[in-house]
Amino acid sequence: MSANRGPREIEDFVGSAVAAPRIALIGTLDTKGAEIQYVRERIGALGGEAIVIDSGILGSASGAVADVTREQVAAAAGHRLDDIRKAGSRGRAVEMMRDGVRAVCVKLHSEGRLQGALCLGGAEGALLGAYAMHALPLGVPKVIVSPSASGRRVFGPFVGASDVVVMHSVVDILGLNPIAISVFDNAAAAVVGMATNAGRSPAGMGGRSVGVTMLGQTTPGVMHLRDALEEAGWETVIFHANGVGGPAMEALARQGALAGVVDYTLSELANSLMEGIHATGPDRLTVAGELGLPQVVVPGCVDFFNQGAPDTVPEKYRSRRSYYHNPVATLVRLEPDEMAELGRIVAKRLNGARGPVSVVTPTRGFSLSDTEGNALWFPEADAAFLGSLEASLRPGIAFERVAATVNDREFAEVVAARYLTISKEHAHA
What we know:
By secondary structure, this protein is of the alpha/beta class. The protein has two domains: 10-197, Rossmann fold (3-Layer(aba) Sandwich), CATH 3.40.50; 209-427, Uncharacterised protein family UPF0261, NC domain (Rossmann fold, 3-Layer(aba) Sandwich), CATH 3.40.50. 40% of the residues lie in helices and 17% in strands. It contains 14 helices and 14 strands. The strands form three sheets. It has a six-stranded parallel β-sheet, sandwiched between helices. Helix 1 (29-45) packs across helix 7 and helix 2 crosses helix 4. The longest helix has 21 residues, at 90-110. 48% of the residues are buried.
């Protein structure tokens, strides 16, 4: 593919697959044209083939020729570029344009024309590329290079629930100085190397894979669960329930990569109720049910929500039970009324499930720190949650109390047995 060719219709990329991996190279050519052109040439020199997608909105492209122009990107989102420019705010314009970048990348990938993606951009440019990357399957190489990718910035909008690699550009993306060239060379080598030597969705997932949520406070229990399930021939895929892990598990379930779910750790729901740092959206704990997958639900870690370093915890929470988890994480206890409300929320989300659901609850503590003698032990609050949850579940959802802690081997083995039962029944339904 020539570096100085003119733009093509997206459909023109249809044809036989080529050995050289094709990389979507996303950037705003009004401000990053020379940098995009340099990276295009590096990708070519490394054996790849860049498809330049112009995500710019204002100004005009220069320094590089787009394979998919900004006008075509806007059209892929169902808009005219002039309408996007008249959106009324920068944020609204970015929202409209990102739909087009996503649509272009998804189309190219579905047609076998895209084996990786690389984006160079500042705050808005990186978000435009990230939105497209989040729609590409797990295993497709995805790299973002941005000055916003620093330790002082939140990475969630860039990474989402996908396998995006984020590189700090160190300098702003304006000019081909020695520092920028070093970073760009690494980024090009990374994405081409991944697309050439890996760059595929994980094999073997689906029929015997079960998603499991875990935090450090439920690790012993999940390890026992894993052993029991794997002994029965299941492959466990463990997700860190830190505000990203739960949604990532559910996204993979939507892709057909999981045959069932053991939601062992529901701290993300507690965080959502209390606006903790591991909060998620309103769809959490509804996806497996919507898909009709068998699921066992355990209230692991519902006893706390996550805050930052101890000296950053808001004053209104400092009189509560809490646990110093590590230098950047403090676990703050929920009160009985909050636990009761959380029980109703969990029940409401499970009540809409189309597939089999089994709720298994420990009565002697929901986390390592929520056991007798430890910092978060509050049996009255736990009882409020259990009573509320049981009373709010619809008929047909099994509810079971087990006289154990969430991390006891005997409790985890009960959970495993329930999953094996409902998954078998589901397979024969």
